[in-house]
């Protein structure tokens, strides 16, 4: 095993400051992720997701119009759009088969 180099007090302080900055950056990222998860599970968002499932012709534009208020990212909006399109096509197929 290689011996560890002893750090001088100045080097030790610099290393500690660097580690503290990394920890603070991780805490901030975790906080932002938590806020995004809480926003995604808000009652308004859940109701809009239900509208997408039940009435996709109304729900999909609603997601894109309220994108800032909902706080969902672009990938989620695209995914919900595809879900709405698939459900809409299935509803049309069901109506045509009657």
Question: What does the model show?
Answer:
- The protein has two domains: 9-40; 42-98, no CATH class.
- It has five helices and no strands.
- It has helices at 9-40, 43-54, 56-65, 67-70, 74-97.
- The relative contact order is 0.09.
Number of domains: 2
Q: How far apart, in Å, are the first and last alpha carbons?
A: 77 Å
Q: Based on DSSP secondary structure assignment, what is the total number of beta strands?
A: 0
Number of helices: 5
Give the helix level as a range of percent: over 70%
Task: Report the major sheet.
Answer: none
Ranges with pLDDT <50 over ≥5 residues? none
Strand content: under 5%
Radius of gyration: 24 Å
Tell me the structural class.
mainly alpha
Mean model confidence by pLDDT: 85
Helix and strand layout, with pairings?
Layout: H1 9-40, H2 43-54, H3 56-65, H4 67-70, H5 74-97
Helix pairs in contact: 2-3, 2-5, 3-5
Quick rundown:
The chain has helices at 9-40, 43-54, 56-65, 67-70, 74-97. The chain is mainly alpha-helical and 98 residues long.
Features:
98 residues, mainly alpha, 2 domains
């Amino acid at each position: 095993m290689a011996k560890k180099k002893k750090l001088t007090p100045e080097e030790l302080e610099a290393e500690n400051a660097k580690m503290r900055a990394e920890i603070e950056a991780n805490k901030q990222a975790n906080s932002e992720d938590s806020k995004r998860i809480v926003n995604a599970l808000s009652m308004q968002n859940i109701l809009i997701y239900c509208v997408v499932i039940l009435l996709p012709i109304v729900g999909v534009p609603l997601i894109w119009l309220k994108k800032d208020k909902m706080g969902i990212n672009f990938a989620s909006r695209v995914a919900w759009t595809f879900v709405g399109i698939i459900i809409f096509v299935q509803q049309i197929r069901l109506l045509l088969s009657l």
